[in-house]
Amino acid sequence: MSVRPIVTWPDPRLSEVCAPVDDLTDLADLVRDMFDTMYDAPGRGLAAPQIGVMQRVFVMDPTWKTGDRTPFVCINPEILSSGGGTADATEACLSIPGVSVDVSRPTDITFGFTDLDGVRHETRLTGFAAICAQHELDHLNGVVIFDRLTPEMRAQVEANYAVLV
Length: 165
Ligand code: ZN
Fold this sequence. Notes:
By secondary structure, this protein is α+β, with helices and mostly antiparallel strands.
């Protein structure tokens, strides 16, 4: 087990776009450490840049806090389509400790990703899994929950965060 330090806001790595993964060799070690770090935090999703690795991979397990484990490894993920309108939900982020804010996102997405064996998947996600996947995919594009707020909300929330840290 190897828990790695989590990068916290405003570390500039959280605002960078990550590079596509083109070689799955050695990725298993990174993914194992990402799950160890996520479950230890404890969180339900973790993107590679949150431990300082600037590659397009994230892990998530949307259900483990309330039931069985359903671990996902998502390499080179993309949203293929979204529907069902949008809804506000409260989100927190392991890289912005102590902050939770309402973020509006599509409620129903078709999601594409590659697994550790190099197999491409397409899956429909709804509910918390859809929120979690979009939050983690945002990290791979250098986007954090602050970037999803109105300028007024952001200024207020960021000022409160600055007091916390
Ligand atoms: Zn996050």
